[in-house]
# Entry
Amino acid sequence: MEKRTGDNTQAERTDGQKEDIEMKSARWVFIVVVGVVVALGLAGAAYAFHSGGVAECTGCHSMHSPKEGGSFLLIGGDQSSTCLSCHMHAGDTGPSSYHIATADADMPVGVPPKQRTPGGDFGWLRKSYTFTVRGTTSTEDGATHGHNIVAADFGYVADPTNTTAPGGTFSSAQLGCQSCHDPHSGNRRLSDGTYARGATLGQATAPIIGSGSYDTSATPTAGQAVGVYRLLRGLGDNTQGVTFNGVAIAVVPSTYNQTEATNQVRTAYGATGTNTWGNWCATCHPSMHSSGNYVHPVDQSLNSAVTNNYNAYVKSGDFTGTSATSFTSLVPFMENTGDISTLKTHAKNNNTYLNGPSSSDKVACLSCHRAHATGWPEMLRWNMEGEFMVYNSLYPGTDTTPTVPQFARGRLGAETQAAYYDRPVTQFASYQRVLCNKCHAKD
# Structure
């Protein structure tokens, strides 16, 4: 809410005050229009706020009343706080549109974060757990659950343990939403499927007509372009001392933030040439790809054995699956294509495309990790701190019987289930082992 500065009549106001009032009025008109669009259910399609490139300036900046102590005339105290001013909303009771973090007040002790986006919920960073195993008490710090963005307005601070990105030199103190996403993005996909940089470098190229992230995104015609996936940096974009080469290719359903109790959300991750997710993540984590530190393959084609395991694996002890229904969003993969029209037909939220991989598809960092945060250490998609994800037909919790502390890790059973995006426990074996087995079938 804007703060009143006086009771001047219109005639008594200075030109500067009139201009400020006009700008604020325009901004409120913009906010009302966005609210109407959201109410009509059109957000996330062609009417998205960012629309593939630089958004409404006054949505993030205020010329005359920016946040005190901040910079860049932002409405928040820092870049990530400005992002969360829209991408977090107090009062959410479940997954909600483009929200990627749950407010503290909406997840008291024992209540898990609400959002179920493909990237995860930053709210898990606020959840620490203490438990005792064989007489030794341990604490799983919430900071271990994901990328620790700095958003001071909302209590998010730098990683207290890793001063730089693991496997790299990027300073944790400067990590924010803008480190991976570019709110002023000039990166674009052209009508011939190639990628280019434009306005941010003063280069002449086709204008962006809308988002390029969704299965419903427009297909640009000659002389047009759409934005890159999620406004992610790339194409030689240099920021905060690192350079992003290539692009990260993906398509997501236009409705993507939903419980997966019944239907999964499939983000169709693509790859072509050096445009892979592994190369993109390596911008900040380069030593993860060195022979001394990097063991598990990434950006490599799946061999026939792994492909067969993935497609046959249903759950521990059950290898009756088929390639037509084997996909799980808990273990996604990169398709060996950069063709957006193909990926659009695979990005689903209703279980209508569950095809598993072929041997030419690839393993990616995102096969095991989410990009934002999860309910598990190292932002993994499943719990790797014990051999069982499900024990005695129950999600492990301090409230389940028998209680096994090393599997519950201080959580309630409902929190464990939430970390698996609300899947019924019956989707897994009564003694379900970790999902490394989806590819390696050792259980």
In short: The first strand starts at residue 129 and ends at 133. Residues 101 and 121 are 5 Å apart (CA to CA). The beta strands are 129-133, 136-140, 187-190, 195-197, 225-227, 237-239, 242-244, 250-251, 268-270, 334-335. The radius of gyration is 23 Å.
